[in-house]
Amino acid sequence: MYVTVHRGTQQIGGNLVEIGTAHTRLLFDAGANLPPLDGPKTEDPFALEGLTFGEPAFDWVFLSHHHNDHCGLLGKLLPGIPVFAGEETMRILNVIADFTNQPRPEIHFGFRDGQPVQLDDVRGTPIGVEHSARDAYMFLVQAEGQNVLYTGDFRTSEKALAAVRERLGEGEQLDLLITEGTNIRPGKQEMTGKFQGEAWIEHRLTGRLRVHQGQGTVFVLCSSANEDRI
Ligand SMILES: [Zn+2]
């Protein structure tokens, strides 16, 4: 199995990660560059033979979630390369296209959390993660006795990690981890004590809600990444 990161190691988003074997060529995410914080938005210059021009040379494209920096190049992909995404992601992208007067993207297959997809000699398993986009996934890619995990965007939670361990099985390990590093801060928890485990957060949240139990409706304002937690 080989891995080629076409883009994404020197920036946030704009991910294009190729994973394949001698028989199978997969792309994980077709992300557009994030627009500049200031200055005009420009056309994304990314081009790759077999993906955006020439004869189609990729077998399948997987999308981790519906954020533009992970799927914004969908419209540039050569026709004939099938695209897989989560079922909700398909619906969300269709709605976005309808509201922005764009053609609906061609997504060929809606996968589900934890259900492996066997593609010739490669097995890809989407594993649901918590992120500020609904229906977000990491992918465990297995072929030729090797295990690669491509995480996409995610908030670390025990749930996703446990699902990866379960899928790997007894005695198996990851051979390679490809992950977003936007907010990795080793040692910060020890320094500030501010980051606590999921059980601690749930315990605190439940306590707060109980205080107002029976007094009427309780409203919670938080990031959509925390949907599972609530
Ligand atoms: Zn995202």
Given the C-alpha coordinates, what overall shape results? globular
- Which molecules other than protein and nucleic acid are bound? zinc ion
What proportion of the residues form beta strands (DSSP E)? Answer: 15-25%
- Alpha-carbon distance between the termini? 39 Å
Count of individual beta strands? 11
How many domains, in number, for the residues? 2
Structural class label: alpha/beta
Strand line-up of the largest beta sheet: 1-2-3-4-5-6
Tell me the Rg in angstroms: 19 Å
Q: State the CATH architecture of the largest domain.
A: 4-Layer Sandwich
Which fold name corresponds to the CATH topology of the largest domain? Metallo-beta-lactamase, Chain A
Task: Identify the CATH homologous superfamily of the largest domain.
Answer: Ribonuclease Z/Hydroxyacylglutathione hydrolase-like
Order of H and E elements? EEEEHEHEEEEEHEHH
Q: Share of helix among residues?
A: 10-25%
> Which segments are poorly predicted (pLDDT under 50) over 5 or more consecutive residues?
none
CATH secondary-structure class of the largest domain = Alpha Beta
Query: How many helices does DSSP assign?
Result: 5
Blueprint (SSEs and pairs):
Blueprint: E1 2-7, E2 16-20, E3 25-28, E4 60-62, H1 68-71, E5 83-86, H2 87-99, E6 109-111, E7 117-119, E8 122-129, E9 136-143, E10 146-150, H3 158-168, E11 176-178, H4 188-192, H5 198-211
Parallel strand pairs: 3-4, 4-5, 5-6, 10-11
Antiparallel strand pairs: 1-2, 2-3, 7-8, 8-9, 9-10
